[in-house]
Amino acid sequence: MSPEKNDSLTVTDNRTGSTYEVPITDGTVRAMDFRQMKVSEDDFGLMTYDPAFTNTASCRSEITFLDGEAGVLEYRGYPIDQLAEKSTYLEVAYLLVHGELPTQPQLDQWTHDITMHTFVHENVKDFMSGFRHDAHPMGMLLGGVGALSTFYPDANNISDPENRDIQTIRLIAKMPTLAAFAFRHTRGQPYVYPDNDLNYPENFLGMLYKMTELKYEPDPRLARALDILFILHADHEQNCSTSAVRAVGSSQVDPYSATAAGIAALYGPLHGGANEAVLRMLRRIGTVEKIPDFIKGVKDGDEKLMGFGHRVYKNFDPRATIIKKACDDVFEVTGKNPLLEIATELEKHALEDEYFVKRKLYPNVDFYSGLIYEALGLPVEMFPVMFAIPRTSGWISQWLEMVQDKEQKIARPRQIYTGAREKDYVEIGSR
Ligand code: CMC
């Protein structure tokens, strides 16, 4: 038998006794190959049922490789630890978008282009000020990015590569500006314009914190820690928000609207909101002595240990290790956060507890990132925003890949209908 012949699945439909041969490519069978399996001519055909898409590949992708069992994460083939050590977020963004590390002239041009597009239209300030004083900054970012589509109506010309390029640059460039505006709004402070003399993370810190000084001078160690966090969060293959960007983008809407869908998905506590939830949890625990009680509650099913567990990583999250190191660097500048002791002890307890070991639950990227953000002076509401800024390069790379993928069409899952049928309408007075 030739190896090709082995790359198939033989399926016997016991309802009919018919046997089918289904090809296996890249360890995958095509769900549509099951449609031919019918009990009668008018049967719709067999479907696959996969709530939450836990075992369904929705695309072919060359962007991010992830091996959850081995704890491997690579962007375009480059391991995350090398990128976190040697690269910068803007270089990584170029890598994700263009598929290869830039040459020096390419990086200079890219950095120049992003820097030149950090400003937003003045009207953005007006609608930002329209939000309530206590508006959640992630909600403001969500609204702000959606609104950008109205400033660039040509962005819906998604089949034009040049047009896609400029929207890509704008999105990556303007995200920190919108995020900082949202932050300043919650503080009742004036918005700070970008400073083109600063690099990407420095400029963001400046827009967050600049007050009366003529020139904002960021601590390079904090800017570097922030840049590392940006690198770690830049992409993570087909997670909830990326799938949202791809699904919404598959309708051929403009990339701002598709990115807004990603931000909406990231807003949820099980995704980008997890680091916010971690800090709230650590505060609630309050002292190391209360950890055993808390763990007992988690094991009894009262609540989850936030920042633990991952749909894909089942041994460790490689990003968590790098973040722990960045944590130490930041605390060297800012002084230790008392919650760090609780987090470290909590991690130790959990990793020794059979409940967590058996379920392969390890700290994920969010377990320590919140502590760094807090040390940088950010309130918990800003945490998902800090995730959204770098993830924009991942979303847009995935969007670019999707719109150029000939196999993709508008996303449209099927359902198993379980409701009532053919009922007669009852007049309201007779119900
Ligand atoms: N604390 C306690 N138990 C947990 C946790 C947790 N954090 N995570 C999973 N479990 C249990 C879960 O109850 C289940 O137990 P059982 O088999 O007895 O029913 C078992 O572990 C398997 O969990 P699951 O819900 O099937 O796992 P999943 O792959 O569907 O969920 C997850 C992944 C990340 C949503 C989940 O682990 C979780 O809710 N973690 C806390 C939230 C969090 O930290 N999210 C950030 C994810 S990383 C950032 C990102 O990439 O977005």
Describe the structure in your own words:
The chain is mainly alpha-helical and 431 residues long. The protein has one domain: Citrate Synthase, domain 1 (Orthogonal Bundle). Helix content is 51%, strand content 5%. The protein has helices at residues 3-6, 80-86, 89-98, 104-116, 122-129, 137-151, 161-187, 200-209, 220-232, 240-249, 255-267, 274-285, 291-299, 318-334, 339-352, 354-358, 366-375, 383-403, and strands at 8-13, 18-23, 64-67, 72-75, 78-79. Strand 3 and strand 4 (72-75) form a beta hairpin. Helix 2 packs antiparallel against helix 9 (220-232). The longest helix has 27 residues, at 161-187. The model has no long low-confidence stretch (mean pLDDT 95). Carboxymethyl coenzyme *A binds at residues 236, 239, 270-271, 274, 298, 304-311, 359, 361, 364-366.
SSE topology sketch:
Blueprint (H helix, E strand, L loop, with lengths): L2 H4 L1 E6 L4 E6 L40 E4 L4 E4 L2 E2 H7 L2 H10 L5 H13 L5 H8 L7 H15 L9 H27 L12 H10 L10 H13 L7 H10 L5 H13 L6 H12 L5 H9 L18 H17 L4 H14 L1 H5 L7 H10 L7 H21 L28
Antiparallel strand pairs: 1-2, 3-4, 4-5
The structure holds carboxymethyl coenzyme *A.
Carboxymethyl coenzyme *A binds next to loops.
